[in-house]
Amino acid sequence: MQRSTARTRRFGLVAGAALSALIAACAGMGMGQSDLGFFVTSSGPGKGADLGGLAGADKQCQTLAAAAGAGGRTWHAYLSTTGAGGVNARDRIGRGPWKNAKGVVVADSVEQLHSANNNLTKQTALTEKGELVNGRTDTPNMHDILTGSQPDGRAFPPDKDTTCSNWTSSGEGSAMVGHHDRQGLRDDEPSRSWNSSHASRGCSQEGLKSTGGNGLLYRFAQ
Prior knowledge:
Blueprint: H1 2-28, E1 38-40, H2 53-67, E2 75-77, E3 98-99, E4 105-107, H3 110-113, E5 144-146, H4 164-167, E6 176-179, H5 189-192, E7 198-199, H6 205-210, E8 213-221
Parallel strand pairs: 5-8
Antiparallel strand pairs: 1-8, 2-8, 3-4, 5-6, 6-7
């Protein structure tokens, strides 16, 4: 009887240790990232700036977040649109705070996100997988992130195309982009801007790549 009890106790200890190891391994793999609130997409749709409009962009957000274990939250792309019914990117992303895949807060609020005090850098602007995104000093450079927005997160006036026809064009037009690594050709404010640095060279995938992009987006959980 005593031997049976001892064997049962040892089995329980071994099983408990195995369960603890499994939980730790799952945490290390980024499973169940309920706190994930911000990421840069690990890939674009491959159609340049034709994202299927805001609805298509948001759908991709939700799909990538779900694959990372954070599909229980509502995700929106940080994108503005212009013209009738124009939308400001800053109005689509909730109130914050937002943490990346490593649990680091990139901003506590919309106001801080659009100030010089945000914590958005190459080291914190990670993908949903917790990986770095190529910057200006990497090959290929992919630091151009589509936003269509002014520095304050609001849409541009509709007198010129800054959103590739509200994210439905992969040909003519242009889109405003930001630099997730906060670096550019010069050491000035536009070059360091995460959301409003310069216009893209066209709306095609090749056009986006030619200026240092890959059709990537910022994603925020509301």
